[in-house]
Amino acid sequence: MNWDDLQYQYGFGNEFESEALPGALPRGQFSPQQVPLGLYAEQFSTTAFTVARARQRRTWLYRIRPAVVQSDPVARSMGNIRTAPDSTAVVTPAPLRWDPIDMPVTPTTVIDSLMTIVTNGDVDQHIGMAVHLYAANASMARQYFSTTDGELLIIPESGSLRIATECGRLVVSPGEICVIPAGMRFKIEITDAQVRGYICENYGEPLCLPERGVIGANGLANERDFAYPVAAFEDLSCACELTTKYAGELFTITLDHSPLDVVAWTGNSAPYKYDLARFNTINTVSFDHPDPSIFTVLSSPGLSPGIANLDFVIFPPRWMVAEQTFRPPYFHRNTMSEVMGLIRGVYDARETGFVPGGLSLHNGMTPHGPEANVADMAAKVDLQPVKLTDTLAFMLESPYRMRPTRAAMTEPGPQAEYTASWQSIPRRF
Asked: CA-CA distance, 398 to 339, in Å (whole number)?
């Protein structure tokens, strides 16, 4: 694969077609008796065959060898990766916050560095999610990865990732996100000395764009800004290793060729990336706060109408103009559980302690809000239009209780002083 001629095609969920070699893509029939160039046809489906047409996700892959050409899987160590239901998870109603994980001192890839912080739901029931952190300093060479447990939402915080997949290549930098479908095989190379970030593993329905409702036809994330890869393949005949995550366990599969040998593809189940700077923020121009759902970029539909399995929400640079309003995020308790991360800058409710690469957890009905000094300043400030500039935070919201893993609570564990950040809020009655 040549990274110098990187190209993309645009449009969320579009039926794309792409060929790395002229004539590789069959015309008029998905699975002809003889595929052009001696390739094999293989369908890759990430939804049930019979779902409504608007929800269908499937891609036809035309590859040098079908994916079934591989060894039997062999169980391997899980490291710090955990999956729901996690029998070792810790339950606490306390608000929690973590510092970024340490950078490795020995060569470590993104996948080998994964540390699960929270999980919820049940992977076998296809509900819930997990949140992992990564900190790496090495590329995957002849090493590849896939997870059948859920699609991956990758959120870099520091350093760019070069992600080679069965459908082609994506370069994803801080301020961008990438989504890789469940079951898609890929590897991650790095060009910086160190990289760090977040990965959300979505066990539920594939992420999609939320309905806009009364907002109308424009605003939030637009289909035209989602970038999909064009076909690019590895034709390697050498020993390769595929790590696959299945039902919460890791397995090693050996191959005598690269699993990224797809020469052409057509369909709508493929990896994609999105530049968060393209998000068209909606906000108030009068008073009070709209709910943070107006910042939803992607959503995994849930079992009940109006309640998502998972929402991915961002808090990007934006104008704050609300009149006679306490402008930071208000004190609140709500039924949804929230994990928050910071990509850059300062989050407007937290001036200290919440840093890029860190994470906070507020489970359903756990009270939270701005720290004491932020609340005090917000109540006294002379309100003028203000633009928040150096900031980009995100929230992963789910109706299911998020349970911290044992490792997250002990290695080295959450910040001890987080609850103290509210204790100096004075009585003003």
From this structure: 9
CA pair distance 429, 411, nearest whole angstrom: 42
Tokens of 180: 């890789």
- Whether residue 245 is found in the same domain as residue 301: no
Give the span between the Cα atoms of 401 and 38, in whole angstroms: 50
Q: What's the CATH code of the domain at 284? A: 2.60.120.10
Contact 179, 271 (CB under 8 A): yes
Provide the domain count of the chain: 2
How far is residue 364 CA from its own chain's centroid? Answer: 21
Beginning with the edge strand found earlier in the chain, give each strand of the sheet holding 272-275 in spatial order. Answer: 8-10, 226-229, 272-275, 176-180, 151-158, 195-202, 127-136, 115-122, 403-404
The pLDDT of residue 1 is above 80:
no
- Check residue 240 and report its DSSP letter: E
Enzyme catalytic residues:
289
The DSSP code sequence of 289-316 is PPPGGGGEEEEE--SBTTB-SEEEEEE-
Q: How far apart are CA 137 and CA 288, in angstroms?
A: 45
- Of 276, 301, 324, which residue sits at a domain end? 276
Model pLDDT for residues 263-282, shown as the tens digit of each residue: 999 999 999 999 999 999 99
Asked whether residue 2 carries a pLDDT value surpassing 90, the answer given is no
Q: What gap in Å lies between CA 213 and CA 159, rounded to an integer? A: 36
Same domain, 190 and 46: yes
Q: What six digits make up the tokens of 144?
A: 């590849």
Q: Which H helix or E strand runs over 116?
A: strand 115-122
Task: Please check whether residues 125 and 75 belong to one and the same domain.
Answer: yes
User: pTM for this one?
Assistant: 0.97
Shared-domain flag, residues 73 and 195: yes
Q: Residue written as tokens 């709500």?
A: 334
Query: In percent, how much of the chain has pLDDT > 90?
Result: 97
Residue 57 and residue 201 share a domain: yes
Estimate to the nearest angstrom the gap between the alpha carbon of 310 and the chain centroid.
11
Task: Residue 296: give the domain boundaries.
Answer: 278-422
